[in-house]
Amino acid sequence: xxxLIAGNWKMFGKLADVTGFAAAMNAAPAGVDLLICxxxxxxxxxxxxxxxxAVALGAQDCHPTPQGAHTGDISAAMLAETGATHVILGHxxxxxxxGENNAVIRAKAEAAITAGLTPIVCVGETGAEREAGEAExxxxxxxxxxxxxxxxxxVAYEPVWAIGTxxxxxxxxxxxxxxxxxxxxxxxxxxxGNAVRILYGGSVKPGNAGALLALPEVGGALxxxxxxxxxxxxxxxxxxxxx
Length: 243
Ligand code: PEP
Hints:
The chain is α/β, with parallel strands linked by helices. The chain has helices at residues 15-24, 43-49, 76-82, 92-98, 102-114, 127-131, 135-146, 171-189, 191-194, 206-213, 230-242; strands spanning 4-8, 33-37, 56-59, 86-89, 118-123, 154-157, 197-201, 220-223. Strand 7, helix 10 and strand 8 (220-223) form a beta-alpha-beta unit. Phosphoenolpyruvate binds at residues 8, 158, 163-164, 201-204, 222-226.
């Protein structure tokens, strides 16, 4: 399976950053799928700048309903209209900042699929949960409750304690968790579950990407901070080919 390297710009980036970043993506290596997920305000500009490029465009959240009186929210259909093809859902920052639970994330994933978007659903344990030996249990439960029936999207395993900290789990821990996620997906969705890409996310940098992407069942990376610099993002993409 080709690897997917997805960049999550979070609440960073200005209109003036788009053209240069998109132009740098002309040097993207073939053989790996690239996706950039900027803030809502940059989607249309990115869609225009990436026209004709192999780099796909995604958003960072959507509302579970197609339209309505939801001030400040954006529906999946609205995202699709901008040219986005993917949407990140259930990122731990949204779970923490906006109280999103598995049921809400599942409803958002259903809305995304209905609008023709590929959902990237994030799961991952906190540091306290890992220390308590609860990591796999927590992640299995998130898989069970936040993915809708027939889920044919992407799952991102992002240990909360590794996001933006410079810390990463050991190779053994990543391998064990990705195997557990694969088993949970296969049990829940059968053959469809075997085709779901499982990304690793949490402090992926050019210096550690090769080792992480080479691990079994790691189908790519969800990259936060390092995706803001085109050169770092491309270096991570090149590592995927060596993985
Ligand atoms: C993320 O926010 O999805 C993420 C993985 O961030 P970082 O790469 O900065 O740890």
